[in-house]
Amino acid sequence: MSAQLIEGKIVARSVKKALKPRIAALKEAGLTPGLATVLVGNDPASETYVNSKARTCEKLGMYSEVVRKEASIAQQELVSIVRSLNENERIHGILVQSPLPSHMDELAVTLTIDPAKDVDGFHPYNVGMMLIGRGDLLPCTPHGIIKLLEHYAIDPSGKEVVVVGRSNIVGKPVAALLMQKARMANATVTVAHSRSRNLPDITRRADILIAAIGKPEVIGGDMIKSGAVVIDVGVNRVGDDTTDKGYRLVGDVCFEECCQRASYITPVPGGVGVMTIAMLMENTVTAAERYLKFRPD
Ligand code: NDP
Fold first, then answer.
1. Could you count the other beta carbons within 10 Å of the beta carbon of residue 178?
2. Rounded to two decimals, what is the model's pTM?
């Protein structure tokens, strides 16, 4: 059996298409949704992400602002930048690109972002709202995964979902979303991590396996059950002299092997990654709509 590809590009395009009338309605009301991205340092991968976010905003007719700062910036200066973006009426979404330099306290910066503008969905207020099933600014990658499943009519209800990875930005929130008593949820969720014993025994239980490990090709074909849906969140660079860049991107899943046993599988790249930006745009539009609704006259 060869698995059907879950094509993030197609789903991301449909998410962005659905945003167009919402953006048009906001503009009609005199408001252009605006996203500010703060980039500290010059990590090449972060630079690529930030540029791609700004380009997507422009393509959708949204306002975008990128604040670039040296890695040596003091924490207090970054906090001041975020505070001024909180007050900026052109900005409805604020994203501080991670990772931040090691001298910075990432949580302290996140806590400074106005929860109403927290389009990453990382502020503890939004994390809490998500957990009680009332969030409207959901973390982008986990929400993107739900959208992928929805597009391919893969309803997690009643299914065994195994999430490998328990980070605050992917593993924990995707597990929390899938266990909700809600549409596109109601799954029986197991979360595995580096201390889990007998990982293959756990992953083989999964009707839907979500790998968010950050290590290349940890999940082999013998670790999934036949017919499983495999969602690969990982983006890992592995050396490859045959490419111009000297590396290629692979996921946390061994695609060649799992493709033979899975029913559906996401490619890397072109799977989950493209959804993250689409969901960021959706969150920015949602934040702008809420701003319009509640802004004082
Ligand atoms: P983290 O490093 O924060 O978390 C990795 C998790 O995997 C940890 O919980 C860790 O366990 C667990 N883990 C590590 N090794 C093993 C192992 N051998 N067996 C089982 N579990 C293991 O990573 P992130 O969640 O931030 O990211 C995961 C991947 O997803 C990365 O490749 C990242 O680049 C990618 N990513 C992609 C995005 C996209 O848009 N496509 C967005 C965000 C991330 P423990 O907790 O015990 O240390």
1. 25
2. 0.97
